[in-house]
Amino acid sequence: MDISYLLIILLVGAFATYFSGDKLASKVALFFGLVAFGTSLALLNQFNQGENINVLLQWIAKPNIHFALNADGLSLSMVLLTTALTPIIIFSSFGNEFQNAKAIYGLILFMSFAMVGTFLAGDGFLYYIFWELALIPIYFIALIWGNGDADERKKAVLKFFVYTLAGSLFMLVAFVYLYQKAGSFLIEDLYKLDLSANEQTWIFFAFFLAYAIKIPLIPFHTWQAKVYQKAPTLGTMLLSGIMLKMGLYSVIRWQLPLVPMAAKTFMPILLGFGIAGVIYGSIVALRQKDLKKLLAYSSLAHVGLIAAGTYTLTLDGLSGAVLQMIAHGFVIVGLFFAAEIIYRRFETRTISEMGGIREQAPKFTSMFMILVLASVALPGTFNFVGEFTVLYSLSQINVWYAVLGGTTIILGAYYMLKMFQHVMLGETNVKVFKDITFNEGIVLVVIIAFLLFFGLYPKPIVEFIKPSLEVVLNVVNSQF
Amino acid sequence: MDNTILSLILLLSPFVGFLFNVFFGKSVSKNVLGYIGTFAVITSFIVTLMLFLDVNNSKTAIEISLFDWISLEKFSVDFGFLFDQLSLLWLLFVTGIGSLIHLYSISYMHDDEHLNKFFAYLNLFIFFMITLVIGNNLLVMFIGWEGVGLCSYLLIGFWHKNQDYNDAAKKAFIMNRIGDLGLLIGIFILATLSNTLNYSGISNMIQINNASHNEVWYSIAAFCLFIGACGKSAQIPLYTWLPDAMAGPTPVSALIHAATMVTAGIFMITRLNYVFDLAYSVQIIISVVGAITALVAATIGLVQNDIKKVLAYSTVSQLGLMFLALGLGAYEVAVFHVITHAFFKACLFLGSGSVIHALHGEQDMRNMGGLKKVMPITFWTMMISTLAISGIFPFAGFWSKDEILMTAFHGNPALWVVGSIASILTAFYMFRLMYLTFFKEFRGTEKQKSHLHESPVLITFPLIILAILAAVGGLISLPGNSWLNHYLTPILPKLGEEHHVLGTTDYILMGIATIGAMVGIFIAYTKYIKQNQVPSQDSEITGFANVLYNKYYIDESYNAIFVKPINALSKIFRNNVEPALSELVFGLGKGANYFGKQGKKLQNGNIGLYLFAFVIGVSAILIYLFLAQ
Question: Do B574 and A378 count as a contact with CB atoms less than 8 A apart?
């Protein structure tokens, strides 16, 4: 079995879900999501045993485009993140009623398909197609099934769509330029290119625009909070849990090894962008009134730190960033789900209308608390491993980066605990809050179990991703 | 038994207790869950004793590595334990006093509807405290360090319906995290210097490299670690959370906010004594901060009327004295005071709990008085502890405080003066507490008066044990013949070289300290017994007393300097910067929109058409570029 089976399963799943009708759609989608997850585990096993599961087919002769899918520790870890979170996200929305359910569940699998493709693509052109393809389902999910005022939503979603698309166009131009030089879109051919410093700078910033918008880094983040707020929760989960990792992944896979000299030259600025995001995002999060928006800004702060880790160009920085990408993927999905659980009962996302839940829902409170603690990277959670590694790598560049980036330890605790206090604690709410259902519990328990287990024993993941990051760094260092 | 298994029992027993209380706490009777929680800690205590005897006999530390935890490019951090003289000493009083306080809590918290949660948190705290102490590297310690902070947060906000308590809990966590950032940076620097985080590795690196060329970096590391210690051990400027932490149930104040968690900073500095010995300038900072903290907290303690607040400020003040000693390189003296303080302060807090219990929640000393007759056990145990904390011969505090003051005198007389004043003030406010609470007539309501009673045996038993320890605890380190110093020699090699013999100066110092304490007590006696004064109502407090009563307005200043500006900034970011950035993008978007207007008709929501158009478009660009070539 090669890695393309995974893509086929997801694509078939998307269509099967669409044609299964509204009643069955969620279950069919979950089934295919789980099959895809199982398949990726099987592929992981094959990969670990040294089998070649890559795909390389000539797709278009002129221009020279390949259907190339490459599996390594980095791409497979992102694929597993996607295929693990997809069924979780699908299952988490079992408690929701959607109009035209077959379409939304089909779109989820389709998006999963596109994201997996992005992570695996070993050909620049193919990568670009998957990259853009992933945008389409989330656009419709947010537009059609989102909440709030329809006009405002439309405006926010369109802005997001156009903005990210516009950013990506620069990347496309960069790819076309690279193609001209290499005569191929294959990543290994592109890696071999010897670009002048000037060329590197231009290409670097073309990529940077695409990624900075996608991740997002400040000040390119303005689409984020509104879209997170307006999208249905499962859309927000897809965006924050997986899709923003596409940008971070691409930095490691494409941007750094292709134009490392530029990355090195601009390192202080890039680290500055990331760390400024940590501080800015945290401070903005402090005074948010809407729970989902608050989480969006917390996400902004976290990805800022992750991006800073990638731009250190050190092994610790990269591996810390990847670990944190995985950890953040899980915790943010959990947190948005917690927001959804509250919404299902109180029909509000406004923090000031909440409070006094703890007494009524002890199970939910405990689980929410653990997620909050993971989000603030308490040692023992997987998030700590990533955050510690990233901060350590920053301290290796200059200890002040670690100090500034480390303010997330303080500010993160401030806005998360403040949020928790106003959402959960205080005099018992007059509105009835039913404790979590069995299904809701499963979702949270799975996420929490993952975060705690790998918090204490991250070794398997670290050892799995490290060799691939070393390869990337070798390409990077070969240019110095 | 195998040491690995023993250490796992030691560590995991409270954790199992925690899990039990979380999952089955609701389905068993209240007494059962309390005893199970207590039993879990007693188990740890017994295992500690076994390991203690083992290490004490063999004189060799036990190091256990379980598995690789975090691996970095240059080094990896294992999940490992170190049982040596220092960690076992700490474990003894953590699990020992922990057991007593668990026992006490069975009765004290009996009427609380969330008893299972209380014991769950308490067990979890012990688990993290053990982790903190037994880690063989800084990062495992950090798990415990942040973990105890979490439990402190959970227990301060235990009565979560009250948002003031929740604020106090949040404040404790955040202030601790300020320290934690410092600690983490210190860890990074040490990691860079030593390429390991194992204590043994860090110490080896210092010995091998002679370290003198890196002295600046070691000093910076030491300073950062000290910031961490300031957070956890409530030193200036990060102490303000501790008095607020009294919002938690009283056993929590005794266990976490007096006897154990707040000593973590002293533990860490003692553990890394070889790093701090390299950083002379930081040592000066530590003793000065310690001395100032001791004095400032003591002055605030003079006028507080809430019985727990008095004890809280007294804790801050005593911790300050310990830091004073640490800064002078007298680690063993600080450790000695940690231990005696744990005895008498735990006893005092539990005693105050017993009083509060009898008065159904009353904490204001102005509404107490005359309890000596109805609560004799509480009175006498607290009296012994008060004598101990005041430094009266021959109680435990006399010996340890005296050692600190002597060290200070030999280090720098100015420190001695400040420390002595703090001690005199301590004697005064502690006897003020005793006189107001137990002497003269009862000043509470008639209803309270009719219900006055001595607490049940589960409460008085721990008090008696702790009072005995507070009385005789000094025996572990008598001057000239100190078991403690001898015991700690493997950790603090310098101790082996010194032979502490008391000179005339030292006897004079002892005399001065004792006279000072007597003076403090005498003033309190005159004011509250002879003149029968009762502190005035809040509104009537004026002048400097008012400044003290309001704690020098430090909380208010922090609010004005840090909290308010950051919130204002947040508001500006939210209301102004965000929309401005957003508008900027929209401006760009409008330009793009114009550019893309031709394609608008195609945007009818049909995915297939979209894709088709997209592929065509990209192909067109490509073809164009090829043709251009």
Answer: no
